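Recall that a protein's primary structure is simply its ordered list of amino acids. Everything else, from secondary elements to tertiary packing, is in principle encoded there. The following example makes that idea concrete.
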Amino acid sequence: MLIVRKVKESDLEPLYELIGQAELGLTSLAISKQKLKSRIERSVFAFSRDVAKPDGEPYVFVMVDSMSGRLVGTAAIYSKVGGFEPFYSYRIKTSVHQSSELDVHKKIRVLHLNAEHNGPTEIGSLFLAPDYWGQGHGRLLSLTRFLFIAQFPERFESEVIAEMRGVVEPGGRSPFWSALGSHFFQIDFPRAETLTSQSKKFIADLMPKHPIYLPLLPKEAQDVIGCVHRNTKPAKAMLEKEGFEFREFVDIFDGGPTLHCERAGIRSVRDSRSGPVSEIVAKHSGSDDWVIANTDLDFRCCRGAVTWNASGAVIDQETAERLGLSPGDLLRSIEVRPKVRPKVRPSQ
């Protein structure tokens, strides 16, 4: 059985081993062991204290296989981006060029460097051990973050973003980076990816400040702007079903899209239900089509079956044990997949 819980300092070694399997393009996981240790320590501190407003804290979660004790996945929420170091991205705008004399009216897409100092909450750093891909395990990791946001909204901004990994070729070459960033930084994409996890000052020092007209880039670079890596397509589709959308912001390194959603508009935040445990049964007759979490800062989450009635939630003994719940304790749940509402035909 898989359980998602908050990270502990003792998770350093297995977590570092896990993220070492991550592919190129997962920038937030391309970090040293010391950087990971610092992130874990900051997360442990964030979970332990009262927070009145977001201040850039990381909330790191790990997925553990309870049968083997193996740490098999991770995901994180960064309560706020920007601040001491700006959050950089390219914003795609449309420039209109026209000449009445030549009867020309042309719309051209242009990249504008955007530095966000007072940014939104970001979800990211989701990675699952390759032998655990599929079977909805990645969805459990992702939805855990939304249930935590729903339970503790004061810890997060009103807007949430997700940077999607852009197109990177098997050898580590990024068509977008090769066409643009490499000319100013004179380093390859893997090196740039590593540097951005250490400091962003070099971006301000070297990145061109003037707009970049997309038709001036090679076609192979234009074609990948706003596109995701083939392994990221399921994550993008899932986030879109949760309410996220592309608003013309892309990553400055690989050109991958940044998805946005208002915190209150995220399906698993908006539609999740919280209430007391009214009964714990030996075996639940329902299917495990729910993501269920406890509601305190010793946060734990798993898939399971739950039935809601007038008195609260009915869960089985195994789920209760995994989440540390007793009758009367509060839980929060959301269906794993959003319901497909039937289309209503207009009246004739």
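The mean pLDDT is 90. The chain is about 25% helix and 35% strand.
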